[in-house]
Amino acid sequence: MFAKKIGITDTTLRDAQQSLIATRMKTSEMIPVAEMIDEVGFHSVEMWGGATFDSCIRFLDEDPWERIRVLKKYIKKTKFQMLLRGQNLVGYHHYPDDVVREFIKRAVGNGIDIFRVFDALNDTRNMEVAAETIKSEGAHLQLAISYTISPVHSIETYVKIAGDLVSMGADSLCIKDMAGLLTPTQAFRLVKGIKENYDIPLQVHTHCTSGMGTMTYLKAVEAGADIIDTAISPFATGTSQPATESMVTVLKETNYDTGLDLGLLSKIAKYFKKIRNNYKDAMFDSLIVDANVLLYQIPGGMYSNLVSQLKGLGVIDKIEEVLEEIPRVRKDLGYPPLVTPISQIVGTQATLNVISGERYKIIPNEVRDYVRGLYGKPPAPIDSEIKRKAIGDKEPINCRPADLLKPGLKHAKSIIGDFATQPEDILTYALFPDTAKDFLLRKYTRKNLVDIGLENTEEDGVYPV
Q: What is the mean pLDDT of residues 249-255?
């Protein structure tokens, strides 16, 4: 058997911290170890996208665009990668095409090299504009399959989707297993099926929520996967990715050696162990293998959010009923993959069904929009009775959902343009108008204070390597 070097994408700065500490890691906590990360030889560093944008402006009081620029000063050799939710970008609903195009252009201009683009429903129409723009901007287009299990999903289904993504001009593909449902056996079959049909680099992404992650990666590599996603051990396992050090060690004894230096990884892990201590209370539940993901097919992050939501409502005793209701709602809605924003939609409806005492007595607007087709085409038909309750006699739309949206940049500029000091500020407002107003006011007030020497700019909680 010939030797094949396997690439590693490090997720510590994005998905790992999103999965374990609700995306609260500060840029200042990343800087001291950034140059060391650059020396490892990772295929890429996933450091942006997903929930990082929202978290920066909502909770951290940071400019997400500045994070790219700052880290680029320290990580100069390793490619920057981001997760893009197709037409949803980094938000929770579809944005107009002009906003999508401008966002990608600015992301490339600020330093993003690889875009992993997915759609929660695997509806390729919701990926088209993003894909076209990424290609035209000269960046690497990685199109992802949102993996789930249901009576209407099969290996053949996913191989067909892979073919559709290849035809869209993908430079590489990714199997995105956001809930940790991909078993080692299915990983082998799926990777082999894709690689036998398409000559294209294939990356595999999974979570350790169910406890299968490391085994799933090994079988995926044996079947022909080229790259896997891992996280430095202090931010690995649980609802995060398998540990980098573990996978490097496992593969070193095979024909798939990564070539990464365990000594250097150990030094990076030592640093992040200190950072993790800042968030140890938040990580407790996230580090436990969660069997619920196998019973109810829900991502670990969705489970923790449900617990928090039910506690807030004072009905945490209803958690088992809600968990049992989620698969029923998912079936009613055509077996959508449970990934942002669909996971939130299904979870909210299941919660309302339980606490109201009557199924679909209360239907949120997001569910009505989903049934209307405004999020895309479901994998299977929606239950006719649920459809009637949600939208009455109206027929779902047949067009690409974003075709119904008016351009958004001109409006955003008219509202925030005089206040913005960089083009990216207009995009920040277009994506999160309510949050962005407060954030930009704080940002530029703080900048003015710094300029005249009245603001303390020292950062807390940063440790030397």
A: 94
